[in-house]
Design a protein that fits this description.
Layout: H1 2-75, H2 78-114, H3 122-141, H4 143-151, H5 155-178, H6 183-209, H7 217-220, H8 223-258, H9 260-296, H10 300-336, H11 344-359, H12 362-371, H13 375-397, H14 404-428, H15 432-454, H16 465-487, H17 490-509
Length: about 500
C-alpha cells in the first residue's frame, strides 16, 4: 500500500503538470504550422524532427541507467550508486561520440539525392540537421542525470522543468510568428538551443541535490559492474536506437514517395499522439522505479503485480482521451488548425490505435529490463523494428497510399506484443494466460464497448461543437461504468475501495 501511495502521489504531480502543458503545447503547434506553412513544417519534421524524437531516445536510455540506480537503491548500496553514475557517464560519452559520427555519415547521403526538398531550402535544411547533431550529443551525455532524477522519483522537479520547457516553446512559436529572419532557420536553432539549456539545468540541479552525483571516475570505477552495465547499456541502446531510426525512417520514406506536404501531416499526427500519449507515459515514469526497486529487493511478485496494474491503468488513461478524439478528429483538427494537411486525420487515428496496442505491453518491457537479461530480447526487438520500414518502402514502391504506413505498423505492433509476452514468461515467470485474460482481453473489450456507445451521437447529430460536447460527456460517463463492470478484476476493485476508504477516513479526521 505504501508503494501504491507513492506511485499515486508522483502520478498526481505529473498529471497536474500535464493539465498545464497539454493545451499550451497544442496551441504552440498551431502557431508553428501557421508561421512556417505546410512545406517548411514538413521540412522540419523530416530533417529536424529527430530533435523531437530525441526525447524518446533520452527517456529510453535513461530508463536503462535508472534500472541500475533503482536496483542499487533496492539493495540499499549507496557506494554502488556512485559507481553506477560514474560508469554511466563514461558509457554515454562514448555512445554520444559514436552517434554523432554516424549522423554525420548518414547526413551526407540524406542530402545527396534521398530527400525531396526544394533547392532553395536545402541550405536551411542542412543547417537544421547540424543543430540536430549538437542537440543529440548533449542529450546523450546528460542521460545519467535523468536516470538519477527518475531513480529518486523526483517528479516535482520533472513537472517544473516540463512546464518551463512548454513556456519556452510557446515563446519560440510567438517569436518566429513575428520575426523577419528566416522562420525555419530560427525555429531549428532555437529548438536545439532549448534542448541544450534544459539539459544543463538538469546537470546543475543533480550536482547540488544528490550526493551520489560525484564525478570521480578513477575512484568509483568497478570493473565487474562496468562489464555488466556496458552489456546492458549496449543491448538497451540497440533496441532504443533501432526504434528511433525506424520512426525517423518513416519520415524519410514518406518524403521520398510523397514529398514534404505529407511530412507535415505526419508531423501534426505525431504532435497529437505525443501530447495525448504523455498521460499514460506519465504513469509509466512514476511506475518504472517501483518495478526496478522491487526486483532489486528480491520481490518478484510485487514487480509483476505492478506490471499488471500499470499496463491496465496506462491503457485506460489513454482510452479516456483517445475515444472522443478518434471519433471527432475531423472536427477537432478543423477547429484547431487554420489549414489541415492532407492525410493528417487518418494518420493520427491509425497512430492512436497503434499506441493503444503498444501501451498494453510497455510495463512488461520494463519488467524484462529489471531482471537484466535483455540481449536476446533487444536483438529480436531491433529486427522487428526495422522490418515494417522495409515492408512500407516496398508497398509505396508499388503505389499504395501514404496511410498504408500506419496499417503496417499496427500489424507489427501485434507481433511485437507476442515477442514481449514470450520473453516476459521466460525471464520473469509471467503467466501469459493470466495476463491475456486479466489485462489484454479486459482492456480491449472495454475499449470496443466504449467506442461503440460513444459513437451513437455521430449517427443522429451533424458535425459541430454540440456533437463534440455530447460525445465528450457520453464518453466520460460511460468510461467509468465500463471500466468498473468490464475492465478490472475483483482484486483491483477491492484495491480501489481500500484507497477511497483510506482517503475518506483521513479527510474525516481533519
Amino acid at each position: 500500500m505504501k508503494e501504491a501511495k507513492r506511485v499515486a502521489k508522483n502520478t498526481g504531480i505529473l498529471y497536474a503538470q500535464m493539465a498545464i502543458t497539454v493545451l499550451m503545447s497544442l496551441y504552440t503547434t498551431r502557431l508553428i504550422l501557421a508561421a512556417l506553412g505546410a512545406e517548411d513544417f514538413g521540412i522540419f519534421n523530416v530533417v529536424g524532427g529527430a530533435i523531437v524524437m530525441l526525447t524518446f531516445l533520452n527517456a529510453a536510455m535513461a530508463a536503462a541507467s535508472q534500472r541500475f540506480m533503482s536496483f542499487a537503491q533496492g539493495e540499499g548500496n549507496f557506494k554502488k550508486q556512485k559507481s553506477i553514475f560514474n560508469i554511466s557517464l563514461v558509457l554515454h560519452f562514448f555512445i554520444a561520440i559514436a552517434v554523432v559520427v554516424l549522423l554525420e555519415i548518414v547526413g551526407y547521403f540524406l542530402f545527396d539525392g534521398i530527400l525531396k526538398i526544394d533547392i532553395e531550402r536545402i541550405g536551411v535544411a542542412k543547417l537544421i540537421y547540424q543543430f540536430l547533431i549538437v542537440s543529440t550529443f548533449f542529450t546523450i551525455i546528460s542521460v545519467p542525470y535523468d536516470a538519477i532524477i527518475n531513480a529518486h522519483e523526483n517528479m516535482l522537479f520533472v513537472a517544473i522543468l516540463r512546464i518551463a520547457e512548454t513556456i519556452f516553446k510557446l515563446g519560440i512559436a510567438l517569436f518566429i510568428t513575428y520575426t523577419s529572419f528566416d522562420k525555419l532557420y530560427m525555429y531549428g536553432l532555437l529548438m536545439a538551443s532549448l534542448s541544450v539549456l534544459l539539459l544543463i539545468i538538469r546537470q546543475i540541479y543533480c550536482h547540488k541535490k544528490y550526493e551520489e552525483v560525484d564525478i570521480n571516475i578513477k575512484k568509483y570505477f568497478n570493473k565487474p559492474l562496468f562489464k555488466e552495465m556496458t552489456g546492458f547499456a549496449g543491448w538497451s541502446f540497440l533496441g532504443s536506437s533501432s526504434s528511433l531510426i525506424t520512426n525517423y525512417g518513416q519520415s524519410i520514406v514518406i518524403n521520398m514517395f510523397f514529398g514534404t506536404g505529407v511530412n507535415a501531416a505526419q508531423g501534426v499526427a505525431g504532435q497529437v499522439s505525443g501530447q495525448l500519449g504523455a498521460f499514460a507515459g506519465t504513469m509509466m515514469k512514476a511506475l518504472n522505479p517501483l518495478i526496478a526497486k522491487s526486483e532489486g529487493a528480491g520481490n518478484r511478485s510485487l514487480m509483476l503485480k505492478a506490471s499488471f496494474i500499470g499496463s491496465k491503468v496506462s491503457f485506460f488513461l489513454l482510452t479516456i482521451f483517445y475515444v472522443p478524439v478518434i471519433l471527432e478528429m475531423p472536427y477537432i483538427f478543423g477547429f484547431w488548425l487554420k489549414e489541415v494537411p492532407e492525410f493528417a486525420v487518418i494518420f493520427c487515428q491509425l497512430l492512436l490505435v497503434r499506441n493503444l496496442i503498444e501501451q498494453l505491453f510497455l510495463t512488461l518491457s520494463s519488467s524484462i529490463a529489471a531482471v537484466g537479461n535483455i540481449r536476446k530480447f533487444e536483438t529480436y526487438v531491433s529486427i522487428l523494428n526495422f522490418t515494417p520500414l522495409i515492408a512500407t518502402y516496398v508497398l509505396f514502391y508499388f503505389g499504395f497510399p501514404p496511410y498504408t504506413l500506419y496499417f503496417v505498423y499496427i500489424i507489427f505492433a501485434v507481433c511485437n506484443a507476442g515477442l514481449i509476452l514470450y520473453f516476459a514468461k521466460k525471464e520473469c515467470g509471467l503467466s501469459v494466460s493470466e495476463y491475456l485474460k486479466d489485462v489484454v482481453f479486459k482492456s480491449i473489450l472495454s475499449f470496443i464497448i466504449l467506442i461503440l456507445i460513444t459513437s451513437i451521437p455521430n449517427y443522429f447529430l451533424i458535425e459541430g461543437f454540440i456533437r463534440l460536447a455530447i460525445v465528450l460527456v457520453v464518453s466520460t460517463c460511460f468510461f467509468f461504468m465500463v471500466v468498473w463492470s468490464v475492465g478490472i478484476t475483483t482484486y483491483e476493485k477491492d484495491m480501489v475501495r481500500s484507497i477511497i476508504n483510506n482517503f475518506y477516513s483521513k479527510y474525516k479526521t481533519k
